[in-house]
Amino acid sequence: MEHPINILERYWHFTSFKNNQEAIIESVIAGEDTFVLLPTGGGKSLCYQIPALAKKGICIVISPLIALMKDQVQTLNNKGIKALAITSGISHNDLDTLLDNCIYGNYKFLYLSPERLQQELVQDRIRQMHVNLIAVDEAHCISQWGNDFRPAYKNIALLRQLQPSVNVVALTASAKTEVVEDIIKELDFIQPKIFKQSFLRPNIGYMVYHENDKYYRLETILKKYTQSSIVYVRNRKSTLEISSFLNSKNITATYYHGGLSNAEKETNMAAWLNNQKQVMVATNAFGMGIDKPDVKTVIHINLPESIESYFQEAGRAGRNGEKSFAVILKNNSDLQLVKNQFLNVLPTVDFIKQVYRKLCNYFQISYGEGAYTTYDFNFNTFCKTYKFSSVLCYNAILILDRNSIINLSKQFKNKVTVQFIMSNTAIFNYLDHHPDLNIIVKSMLRMYGGIFDYETKINTLKVAEKASVTEATLINALQRLEKDHVINLNLAKTDAQITFIEPREDEKTINRIAPTVKQQNHIKQGQVKAILDYIENDSVCKSMQLLSYFGEKELAPCGICSVCISTKKKTEKVDYNILKNRIIELLEQGDLSSRAIVSKLHCSEKDLKTTLKLLLEHHIITITKTNTYKLNPS
Predict the structure, then answer these.
(1) pTM of the model
(2) Which domains does the chain show, CATH number per domain?
(3) Per-residue confidence at 495, pLDDT binned at 50, 70, 90?
(4) N or C: which end of the chain has fewer CB within 10 A?
(5) How far is CA 210 from CA 80, 303, 340, in A?
């Protein structure tokens, strides 16, 4: 068997392992059931990928996140390692072929969603595979006490029956003590090797600032620290607004959210990864599988929904070990906003029943039918059709997704059907007068034989590729052809696909998951309370608060968070005479706002206000009509 360090060097070009990685890999190679709790950036993937490469056979990886599965498969394939993912929307014939490849095609990794384990075909083929390891990623999803509990994860124990002699490694980045115990029990571990790395990140300063003007503080931070940054926001609209604001302030920024096309995502991601853009403004759709070591600041301009998600997102800062910052900007309106965003929109069981019934009607699914059928889904159109609140409806659909009633795949795409209605001769006469459309029309005619006889669904990406034009240029050309009565065009935009996993049973379907829904709503309320407690507690070190939440003990103040720095400043006596003289020296050069003075002197706002008040009382300075400070003539 090849030594793990040789595999690490050959494929990943590292010469040494991170903390605990080597011991974990040795445990997995030795055939032990292994539990791995490594914080974000700890290198969890290598803990199953290297053992799987060291041994003959294929590793089955269970993951709930389609985007992450695809990313990992792409990364492995780029390294020359054979891997594939079986996600939703794959036909029975394609599924059959892919599973055969896993048995006979010398593949090393098969990524599966837990829902796929319910299919008899998948179970039958797994029995025939030479499986060398079962890896359960995001293992906290198996626990009913965990963040993002997915009942389908309970099916994973079935793999132990299909491959009884194969050991299991469970991996997670965030799990409280009761969740760890639940994972070990649910996966039927016997005398497992447990590896827990402390959540302590000594190089990250956790900052919470109360700001009436968040945009100004955001600009200040990003101009002070000009290295790579992530700004997390709550919705798609904000990604555009804030990236535009930052660009207007000469801070290079791009944006990322679930509604972008794959091409836009890749372009924006590449610009940020290659440091062509300093800032990525993103929703929480961004970040999974991103391992950029030089991120200096992660800034949350809105409150995160839980400590778990915050810790994971904040942990994307400082992976190179250099000092970095995780910042939350809050103000008085955030308390109500977070309640509106995360608590007031928790759907009841009755509302979920209503949404499920309407979804089935929307796609004309008969009672007892619909299992493993996939549909393009325009969420906004659906909400308008049934007059649903978009936020409440989205949360209901997410619950249906997490509980394996449906699978929601978020991906923006154009669904285009075309039929030529002009005769063959007339088309070529038309092209004589419109030569710029010649290659596009001929590409479609060659690719789709029946396009004269009936509406034909075309792949816009492939047509654009064949015609050597962009997809946007192709869409524009199709619209011109429609206007000139050359074609009938149906151009529908979808931002998701829905796969129904179970046959339609209306109330029976939802009643089965009702206890889970109620429990998860209760957990969500506790998570929101925990994040509010965190941002309001200005007396205990921020790092200690986070570590304590995850059950760590014997903690010491970090010395670099907003609480520690504030405490340190309180113990240091400010010499107001020195500060007064420095303000006078600045104002001798011209009038300045209090913001400008703070940024130039790097003093606290509280100490500045005290000193400015003294200078005003002694008539040394005055306030102008534009709210700047100026020296009075002596």
Answers:
(1) 0.70
(2) 4-196 (3.40.50.300), 204-331 (3.40.50.300), 340-412+498-526 (1.10.10), 422-485 (no CATH), 573-631 (1.10.10.10)
(3) low
(4) C
(5) 49, 12, 20
